[in-house]
What does this fold into?
Amino acid sequence: MTDFKEIAHSGGKITFSIMTDSEGRRGFQVGIRSSRPNPMSMIAVYALPQGIPVGSIQLGGIGSPWNPAPFPGCYPVMIQSDSEGRFGHHCPSCDGYWRSGPWPNVCPYCLFNAEGYQFLSNAQRGFVRHYCDVLTQAFEGEDGEVLIDMDLVADAINQEVDKPRFYVSEQSQQRKFNCIACDEVNDILGRFGYCSLCATRNDLADFEMFTVPAIRERLKAGAPPEDCVRDAVASFDSFVAQYAKQLAVLVPLTEPRVNRLTKQRFHNLKDCRTIFKNWFDIELCAGLKESECRSVELMFHRRHIYEHNGGEVDQKYLDDSGDKTVKLKQAIYESKETAHDLLGTLLKMAKNLHYGFHVLFPPIDAPIQEFKDKKKRMGK
Ligand SMILES: [Zn+2]
Ligand SMILES: [Zn+2]
It folds into this structure.
């Protein structure tokens, strides 16, 4: 319902006090005041006077000095969050847009890794140019105060008025999620992606917390177990496809392998296991009992019958599965228990794939460790 909603700037008033000291050197102080009720947080970047961001500033606490500018003559530019306390970001590699905390490490769509200031959104870049222009002009004038009124910007949202030249707003995306590894809030296009702070994928959390419980609920509510088996295998197939798509982009592979990973399904467990084991050393069935493996393999074959043949055994099923307990045209059924067991096994396999993937593309440790420490402190 709230997809792609324009999110107002957090507002406030930015004042530059331009002054000249006793030796004739000119300098300025920045003040930011906000009396609005919405959340507001702030970051800062170093920018060339032409308005080009060239470095992040670690603002730190009171009394702790800033990191030095990468070049002499840079302006420090304060950038405020949107009115939900988040920052819009733009990926210079894939052109993707998302919102999250102040300083992302990677793009949630393509895993491009860069310094925080390189991910500024287009709206923020426009604002940085305006800020630098105002400051340059202020230096050309007399000592005194110069104002950038961001309240005007915040108020101009959804108004049919001429927006200020330095108008800034962000846009809500489709999936807001707290990363399970580091707790960062990410707001991304579509459903699946990397956490932009720690680079952990969100697919496993989604599968574990939403997909599997939703199918279990349907089973409890009396839905046909055959439908649930079919949907469980289909969800697992989509889950695998997300990782496969990433591997196809991130790992150098031959064209037939890229095509296999991106254009075909993962409904045949034996085939799927071979691919991930042989190409990426990821064992989907690690830690599973042999009987569990056989049973899930059979369910993958049965999915075909429930999906395409109304629950009646066909020759393809007999050939593919080697199942000797049923005959051609026989209608087959599942029990609730089988469906629940299948979901449990699929979750184990999903974890094997997720953690195997992150062995190849390790998450960023610092924010994960920080979140662990915070949980520990709160536990005490
Ligand atoms: Zn990207
Ligand atoms: Zn994270």
The mean pLDDT is 94. The pocket of zinc ion (ligand 2) is lined by residues 179, 181-182, 184, 195, 197-198, 200, 367 (CB under 6 Å). Residues 127 and 225 are 56 Å apart (CA to CA). The first strand starts at residue 6 and ends at 8.
